[in-house]
Amino acid sequence: MNKFILAMSIFVLSGGLSASDCGITVNGNDMMQYDVTTINVDSSCTNFEITLNHSGKLDKSIMGHNIVIVSTESFDEIIGMINMDAGIDNGFLPEDGRIIAKTAMIGGGETTSVSFEAAKLESGKEYTFFCSFPGHYGIMRGKLAI
Fold it and tell me: Tell me, what CATH number does 91's domain have?
C-alpha cells in the first residue's frame, strides 16, 4: 500500500501525465487561461500531438481559443500579424512559414488537435505556444521545449 501512495504522490507532484507519450491535452477556459504553462516534447517522439479542449461555454466568436507554436525569437513578429481581416477560421493569422503548428479556433465545449513533426523543433531552442485570438496572447501563452 505504501508503494501505491508513493507512486500516486509522485504522479500528482509531477503534474500528472508527461508528454513522453508524444502528445498532451491542454484545457482553455472562458477566463482566458490554459491549464499548463510548459509543454515538454520528448526527444524520442517522431510526431507530437496537442489536443485543445475548451472547457468554457462561450462561442468562439466571443472567447475562441487555439494553440499556435512558434520559436520564441519570432513570437513578437507573429503576434504583430494578428489581424481580424485574416479571419477566425485562420486563427486571425496569415500563413507564415515560421508557424510550426496551429490548431483550429474553437469555442466552449469544443475540442481540436494538431500533430506536427517533432523534427521541426531544435534541442536547446526556445519555443512559445499561445492563443492567437486578438488580445489573448498576453495571458494565454507558455513555453514548449524539447
Answer: 2.60.40.420
50-77 pLDDT, tens digit each = 999 999 999 999 999 999 999 999 999 9
| Global confidence as pTM | 0.85
C-alpha span between 74 and 54 (Å, rounded)? 26
CB atoms within 10 A of CB 2: 6
Cell 494578428 identifies what position? Answer: 82
- The 3-class secondary structure across 60-106, one letter per residue, is HHHHCECCEEEEHHHHHHHHCCCCHHHCHHHCCCCCCCCEEEECCCE
Residue 5 maps to a domain: no
Phi, psi of 76 (to 5 degrees): -60, -40
Number of structural domains found in the chain: 1
